[in-house]
Design goal:
Two copies of one chain form a homodimer.
Chain A (H helix, E strand, L loop, with lengths): L9 E6 L3 H16 L4 E8 L4 E2 L15 E2 H8 L15 E4 L2 H5 L4 E4 L6 H8 L8 E4 L4 E4 L2 E4 H9 L2 E6 L4 H5 L4 E6 L50 H8 L4 E6 L2 H23 L3 H24 L5 H6 L1 H13 L1 H12 L3 H8 L6 H15 L7 H10 L8 H6 L3
Parallel strand pairs in A: 1-2, 1-6, 2-5, 6-7, 7-10, 11-12
Antiparallel strand pairs in A: 3-4, 8-9, 10-11
Helix pairs in contact in A: 4-5, 8-9, 8-11, 8-12, 8-14, 8-15, 11-12, 12-13, 14-15
Chain lengths: 411, 411
């Protein structure tokens, strides 16, 4: 007898277990437990295995300094003592050090890996996941080069031959882990598919597919290569995807603009550098707000120029992944702070990076260079005077004091 | 012989000489000097006369503590020692304590008075200005009550029977006086008029004209009552109005949306209170950015609900008078700081106001009450959950901790 209710439930894996990955696993696990008709209770979390020891002030410290496996510890004490200490995880988060095993039979893969590990992890997963799985990329950033722009979600989607959306917002992980109120934007918009007549699944490979190039139309998600979700599963509508992420302390707004959501999380770092430069000059809040506003409008223009109508103005001006993430990044983010310090101390930002960041690298500087290389290749540097000014300040061709003059004509 | 060049020049008066008024007089005077074909060189500045004495650390202090007239001192030392000390004014700023005399023969009146003096000053000027003068209101705020909303520019325009635009932005006066970079938005959009066939000038009076009421269409500028600018003057196009205000350190963006520009400067103070409340709870930058984003969207909705299509979304989301002014106000403005302090110290905002503001009043609290009274009268409190939450927190009906829950359904 036919039944209207779904017979299978979605199984969820979080691919990644750093600060942000563990935070996502925590909130997703809270949600799946509350929605047992939609989701299986266990949330797998892939852990890049390493040896860890408890610090002496951990409540779990037993006097032994013997190293233990991170994944085993997480499953024992329900805490990621290395990357999210002092936050208890729901017991339905299960750490798994084996990547293919952690994703086996999962219909929803949530990618929360550092930028540089995305491609490699996807290659290891290719062919070992459900063909009809769906992914959401929570890693910020895009791959930009002279040849074009590729979104993280595109790398994931093309390598695994599945649809991949994106989550981004004004989301400082530690605040969300503590259940302090925040918002986010989730872009999810798989192409329409006829589940009764699935087309044969081709197997495009990221390395064979051109980067997005303004001279060619954006390939976008290609429904011909996607396998429809079987009808026994609850549909992955905006409503159901929202249920996976929305918490009383983490408000989710669903949109369809994957390009805009992804670009916002990358380009905001260039704006944060600019805001840091003018703040370092002691120019005050008017100037900082002006740079933020001009930066948001350059984001809008960038989206339209290289992703056409699929990048919506409102994604940048109205969503958490746009205006709110710019605000947060320019209030106290790492790029803002280092840029400000560089100007105040009369040093280069690279000197500040070395002394202040414990070997970590600023995302803003590499994004500013990559975006500039791309804009140059398109002959469009002058159309993005703030992005171009940041590059030229980093290169020593301009001074922060030049910013008002450099952006005067265009904004 | 007919000539294409204008035979007369615009004469400019700045009505007001406080911190912001004196700053506007300074920058406008710098501009008119550089554009002698458009503007007369002298800029009149109306000064509310009072007795002042030099402070002992002023460079002008001569050992005498004898009080002198503020207007005379400004014209002697080219400095407003009381309201904008240590900033030298261009010598073409001429202080004038007589209101009608200061505006005589001026084609451009720039109003920069405290909110509560606007109506009275306009009454004193009625009938004593050029019938074809044009005004720009730089005072932030709107008059809101149970009966409706009236913009400052409407009060000015209706009382004087002239067209009045508006200037607003992320504009902390002291930073602009020091020529630190900032941006602003100028809304200027007089109705089309046929200067060859001027219609007889009626004389509507502010007290006879209804407040804007959602049940009636917005009266807007009524061309039938306006006197066209004589053709001997350079046209007051967006380009020429921009030339009056734009400086290398003060970037002007021209728009046509007077309602949006005016509402932004008023409603941002409610948002700043909300941002202060959540920041006072120690909720961090995610929460603060979320409240700002939600607030901007309530501004957009408010504009659309009560001013229709004339209030454009982009005025709030893309212009200095919208998003940038919200950012500045939520970074360090007075409403933000007092709201934050109230939560941190467990006091009411009125107690903080008394101890911290030297007898000055917060604009945000009165705006929050006025807007709530109006929304209540329209049965629309629930459509603006953040504005309503701020009112209810001020009233003690809600706690700041309730904000996420209160806004969850609508945003």
């Amino acid at each position: 007898m036919a039944t209207l209710s779904a017979q299978r439930k979605h199984k969820v894996t979080v691919v990644g277990s750093g600060n942000w990955g563990t935070t996502m696993a925590k909130l997703v696990a809270e949600n799946v437990k509350e929605k047992p008709t939609l989701f299986e209770e266990t949330v797998q979390m892939w852990v890049y295995e390493e040896d860890v020891t408890f610090s002496k002030d951990s409540k779990h410290y037993s006097g032994s300094d013997k190293p233990e496996k991170l994944s085993q510890l997480i499953n024992q004490v329900h805490e990621n003592i290395k990357y999210l200490p002092n936050i208890t995880l729901p017991s339905n988060v299960v750490a798994n050090p084996d990547l293919p095993s952690s994703c086996k039979d999962s219909t929803i893969l949530i990618f929360v890996l550092p930028h540089q590990f995305i491609a490699r992890s996807c290659s290891q997963l290719a062919g070992k996941i459900l063909p009809y799985a769906r992914a959401i990329c929570c890693t910020k950033g895009v791959d930009v080069g002279e040849k074009g722009i590729r979104l993280m979600s595109e790398t994931i989607g093309m390598t695994l031959n599945i649809y991949c959306g994106a989550l981004s917002g004004a989301n400082i992980a530690s605040e969300i882990a503590q259940e302090k109120y925040s918002e986010t934007t989730v872009a999810y918009d798989p192409p329409p598919m006829d589940s009764r007549n699935p087309t044969p699944s081709g197997s495009p490979n990221a390395s064979q597919v051109d980067l997005i190039n303004p001279s060619k139309p954006n390939p976008g998600p290609r429904s011909a290569h996607l396998t429809p979700l079987p009808a026994e599963y609850p549909p992955l509508s905006h409503e159901n995807v929202r249920k996976l992420f929305h918490r009383p302390y983490f408000h989710v707004h669903m949109v369809s603009d994957v390009a805009g959501v992804s670009l916002g999380g990358a380009l905001k770092n260039i704006i944060a550098l600019a805001a840091g430069f003018v703040d370092g000059l002691g120019w005050g809040d008017n100037a900082k707000a002006a740079v933020m506003r001009v930066g948001i409008l350059e984001m809008v223009k960038f989206g339209k120029a290289f992703f056409g109508e699929s990048a919506r103005t409102s994604t940048f001006t109205e969503e958490s992944c746009g205006v709110a993430d710019v605000v947060t990044s320019c209030m106290g983010g790492r790029n803002f702070r280092c840029a400000k310090m560089a100007i105040q101390r009369g040093k280069t930002i690279y000197e500040i990076e070395q002394t202040e960041l414990n070997g970590q690298k600023l995302q803003g500087t590499s994004t500013a260079y990559e975006v500039n290389e791309f804009l140059k290749s398109q002959g469009m540097e002058d159309d993005f005077p703030l992005f171009t000014a940041v590059y030229n300040i980093l290169e020593g061709n301009n001074k922060p004091e030049d910013i008002p003059n450099l952006i005067e004509k265009k904004h």
